[in-house]
Amino acid sequence: RSPFKLKYLRQENNGPASARNMGIEQAKADLLLFLNDDAMLEPNALWIHLDEHEKHQSALIAVLGRFSLHHDFNSLNMPVAFTIEHSDLIFDYSGMTTEKSYGFRHFYTCNISLDKSILQQVGCFDDSITTAGAEDVELGYRLGCAGLSIVYRKDCVAWHAHRLEPMDLGRMFTVRGKGGVSLFLRHPGLPHHYRGISLHQAREIRKLQGRLESLVLELCAEVSRFDALSFSPPGRSMKLTERENGINFRFLWQAGEKDVRNVIEKLIHDIRKTQERCISENLVMPLDDAAVTVYPALTFIKWYYDTVGIIESPYLEDLIDIESKMKARLYMAYACNYIRRKVNGEDYLYRR
């Protein structure tokens, strides 16, 4: 029983975009709140959403709350969960500031509220995107073009009631990779990290994936074994970002098999060496140091499976065809990307 007037809606599974559109259509209130299907909202979260909208009545905003791992499902005393919570691995919360405004890439529908009228103005979710992965960012882009900004409240918490192992991250980022192709197919002017990929490269990457899969699974298993050790509380603040850790895995699709294999073997070696030292010396490592150890491996898993999702998308050929007609813009993107990587010293995969 609930003190609220609830209405339960049911339809055949056609993805989150279609389901949310049904909810939007049936909703009676002016303000709408979106949550994930595995989210548990803190008791004060609705008040925070409402309070923030009342403070910005004259502005076109969405209010974004935090989506944190629930301790019943993911112990934050273990490196994998701690890393997810304190890094840019899944969401960018660790680098966000309360009440600062953000753009469409932060339109996370796991805990966000906005006015119903602006949704109807831009056309709601694109229900032709039948999988999760980019349907929220795609809507966020159209909302941003209409002038909407996103205000973040760190104290507005929804708990993620779901266990996340390394391979769960792999599956998540495969879906995200596929969704990214759908997003950029609809908005080909948006920059993305696999701009310039060819069908030949996609086929070669698929073959490479088959040759590397057992090694990637070994990496996932090594992370899980390390995660099972005992760790002491964190003792320092840290920046778990790709730049701070000398990582540039998002361009894996451009690397050769030897380079990728060497990276995986090094990641396995680094974790295994640290694990053996902890066991042999009966060392209880601080949790923040353990997070620095596993972060590169988890980031590799993220971008490896993102690439898998890209090449598995049934729409990749359509995106490549569209981009072939935008050659001038494509060459400019290539040049800008090359210069940026050189200037920032990013001509590497993993330099730690």
Question: Notable features of this structure?
Answer:
352 residues; six-stranded mixed sheet
What class would the helix/strand composition place it in?
alpha/beta
The termini sit apart by: 54 Å
Outline, from the CA principal axes?
A: globular
Q: How would a textbook summarize the main sheet?
A: 6 strands, mixed
The overall pLDDT, averaged over residues, is 89
Question: Gyration radius, to the nearest Å?
Answer: 21 Å
Q: In terms of per-residue confidence, which ranges show pLDDT below 50 for 5 or more consecutive residues?
A: none
Series of secondary-structure elements, N-terminal to C-terminal: HEEHEHEEHHEHHEHEHHH
- DSSP summary, beta strand count: 8
Number of helices: 11
Share in β-strands: 5-15%
Helical amount among residues, as a percent range? 40-55%
Question: Explain this structure to me?
Answer:
- The protein is 49% helix and 11% strand.
- The chain is an alpha/beta fold and 352 residues long.
- The strands form two sheets. Strands 1, 2, 3, 4, 5 and 6 form a six-stranded mixed β-sheet that branches. A two-stranded parallel ribbon has the order 7-8.
- The protein starts with 15 loop residues before the first helix and ends in a 9-residue tail after the last helix.
- 36% of the residues are buried.
- The model has no long low-confidence stretch (mean pLDDT 89).
